[in-house]
Fold:
Amino acid sequence: MATCANVEDTARDELMPRRKKHDRDSSCLRCKTAKGQIIIRHCVYCKQCFYPTVDLKFRRALAQLLNPSAQRKSKAPKQQAGPSNDAQGNLLLGFSGGMGSAILLDMVSRRYIEDADENAASEAQKSRAEGKRRPSVWQKIRVAYIEQCSAYENSSERTEEVRRIVDRYPEFELIIARLEDAFDIEWWRKQGLTPDPATSVTLSLPSFGIVSDSTTLPGTPIERLKTYLAAQPTTTAVQYSISLLTRLLLQHLALATSSTHLLLGASLTSLSISLISGISQGGGFNVKEEREEVWQGVKVCRPLREVGVKECAAWLWWRGLEVVPRMNEAYVSSGNVRGEQSTIQRLTRDFIIGLEKDFPSTVSAIAKTCEKLEPKGGSNSICPMCQRQVPQSGVQDWKARISIRPFATMTTHEQTPPASEDEISEFERRLCYPCHTTWTSRSIRNRGMDTGTVPLPSWVGLAFGNVEQMDYGSTGILTPESRARTRDRIKDFLLDEDT
Amino acid sequence: MTPPTPPENTSSKTLNLKLEFGGGMELLFSNKRSHRVSIPAHVPAPPPPTASASPATDRPDTPRPSDVNYLIHWMKENILTERVELFMEGDTVRPGILVMINDVDWELEGEGEYVLKDGDEVVFISTLHGG
Structure:
């Protein structure tokens, strides 16, 4: 019997046996005959059974998007779950060069383009597909790629590699946009987007006043993008801004191409990462939108949201798909990244990826739990930056009650008591919590701009209408509605113009 | 320097393996997706113990067959050209890297303790370039 006295001699014999990663034996759970080749959340599958298992998850998520009412009523067995043909209009696929979006292209092509699908769920589908093309659901399928190299120093374009990958699918039309197009009104007009913002808007720091005057903007869209990113106070804010610009460019491209649906390639793991990092930055009110949202009539969906990264990796390898390695990883390998390791997004990703290795079901639980979350209270306004809903209660009051900062490190502007509701700029008042935090958070390095003017994306100008340059108020804060608000406050004391 | 293609193995002292990289992993290995390597068939003996080592310390007297754990360390020492922290964490591959041995998930083959055989194909797929 082992005792503390002879631990060393018996240590080898008494090592705890390694916990098995699967529940039963190593044969396929589905067909029960073939030798298992992959473990997915404690279940073993052979390669032939792996494909339809993953494909079913994709089709189920898509069916919920295309025909939500039928899905709720249908009691059809799982094998028959699939998208209906009720979709109208065009489809836009967001392609980042990463694993999820590469798989998204492959799955959409297999489901909606190829003549016969060897993994079709039923004999009826096979006979219908024999000899003729499967009827397409959407009229036109396009792939959109947003080139981000301008946001990084010493990084190269990836458009040619992206083009080579998308060329595998001749039925897909590739659209390439650039991150700096968010600051280019000419691009906006070329896409035929309406309404026309007329002029660009800039943000005046530190007052957060909006100024609309195209003559004051820097020369090129790239320079505006770099100024915008340089103004972000933390590296987390930079990453947040790049993601926000990318998402909204994709959504605007969907509008420009009359696409009714925009599909993104976020996997279950990527979704869990974005949910947790979004909540960490104060985006809990928009948890539902991270999964699925409707924006100006465009349904934005992530149909791989039930497919984990391990399944994605296996699919990628067994289908011979390629990725364009993500820029920040290539950027990291060149040793030029400063502080990227400490962003909330990166830390969350490392945590979730580590969690998935030993507790894969927990990552799934994160996404499932967030799916059930419902924000308290409604919303009647949209954030001009991220275009998502803002809680009805005042973001400013909330931040004033909960913000904690060391007094000694605060700038003179921050040390003054919080401004009253009337003195807060219109821009600040309309921001949602995470966007407001993005602009106002402070790090030890304090790398952002404290003063100056910052160009804003074109869609922000729309939120403030055709804003003309306003007079400075008594506090020196530029507010688009200061004149109208002042008039409203003193209207009872004004003489009628007739008297 | 890229290792030369090893000749047909007529000796039991080395193992000829095919290493494949996917999902962007090739960036860490000279941007090559496929490598043919030749590794020792047995893990080299550890350095001789110091005089202060306890006699009860377990020291392997016979070399053990090369396994995937050894292969990972061998790759780090011989063919890894970029940042090691993107490939390894501790004594094994970094979380987020799927390893397949002869087209089978390494978790079904005993993970790092799988004993390699001549002609095995080991695939490393990065899941870090997600989305």
